[in-house]
Amino acid sequence: MKFDEIIRKISSAVAAVAVYLIAAGFYLGAKGFGFDANGNLTLIKPAAAAETSHELDPNVVIPGGRSLGSMSAPVVIYEYSSLGCYHCAGFHEETLPRLKKEYIDKGLVRLVFSSFPLDKGSLKAAMLASCAPSGKYFDFINLLFQKQREWGLALNTEKTLAKYAKLYGISEEKAFACMNDKKLAQELVDRRQRAIRTINIQGTPTFVIANRNSREVVYGELDFDEIKPLIDKKL
């Protein structure tokens, strides 16, 4: 092989890597979106990190989501998480299993999960999760968190996500139809924007820990030792 041909091949490979890294940067850096008049995703409002908590007006209607646990549980935890958020994945992989064992399975706490997408990829993942069979929704959510880096940096996010959906009985055709349903996308984005307005969500994860008398908004990933006293106080 001639020297100039070798150089061209190396240059092409370097260029491909550069394009991949740039694309990944845009993917991970995109914040907040909606649909414009032409049906294209467009920026609405960025979500920034926060490290505070506050009490929420008990009369505020909290945007809901899918539920895990008894409907009669005295404490309800509303979780607003992006499926592409590293700290949200940490909560689901490390804190939620113990929370489920010690509170949810005992009927003391109900967890309400609401997708709060921060970029186009996490929106697609949330859309696909909404098409999962109701009894397998949280299992699918947990898988998406476990595989977060894989689909998050994939060159073809939708194809990678569709591969996971097959494990839960969702055909590739249905998966792609779900991820390209503009009405469903708008519903998720609208719920996200309502959460920003009503709860003052500034980043993910955000939790609302509530009982009949009070609601406390807490920002950031919580380990079990941090969330336990907040729950016990509500109990």
Notable characteristics:
235 residues; alpha+beta; Glutaredoxin; 6-stranded mixed β-sheet; two-stranded antiparallel sheet; 9 helices; 8 strands; 14% strand; globular
Can you walk me through this structure?
The chain has a 6-stranded mixed sheet with strand order 3-8-7-5-6-4, with helices on both faces. The protein has a two-stranded antiparallel sheet with strand order 1-2. It has 9 helices and 8 strands. It has helices spanning 3-29, 86-104, 120-130, 137-146, 148-152, 157-165, 172-179, 182-199, 224-234; strands at 34-35, 41-42, 53-55, 66-68, 75-81, 109-115, 206-210, 215-219. The N and C termini lie far apart (74 Å). α3 (120-130) packs antiparallel against α4 (137-146), α3 packs parallel to α6 (157-165) and α3 crosses α8. The protein is of the alpha+beta class and 235 residues long. The longest helix has 27 residues, at 3-29. It has a single domain, classed as Glutaredoxin (3-Layer(aba) Sandwich). Helices cover 50% and strands 14% of the residues.
Task: Please provide a brief summary of the model.
This protein is an alpha+beta fold and 235 residues long.
- What is the helix/strand order? HEEEEEHEHHHHHHEEH
Report the CATH topology name: Glutaredoxin
General shape: globular
Let me know the CATH homologous superfamily: Glutaredoxin
Number of helices: 9
Euclidean distance between termini CA atoms: 74 Å
CATH architecture: 3-Layer(aba) Sandwich
User: What does the average pLDDT come to?
Assistant: 83
User: What class, by secondary structure content?
Assistant: alpha+beta
Number of domains: 1
- Give the beta-strand count: 8
Computed Rg: 20 Å
What is the CATH first-level class name? Alpha Beta
Sheet-strand content, in percent, reads 5-15%
Oligomer: single chain
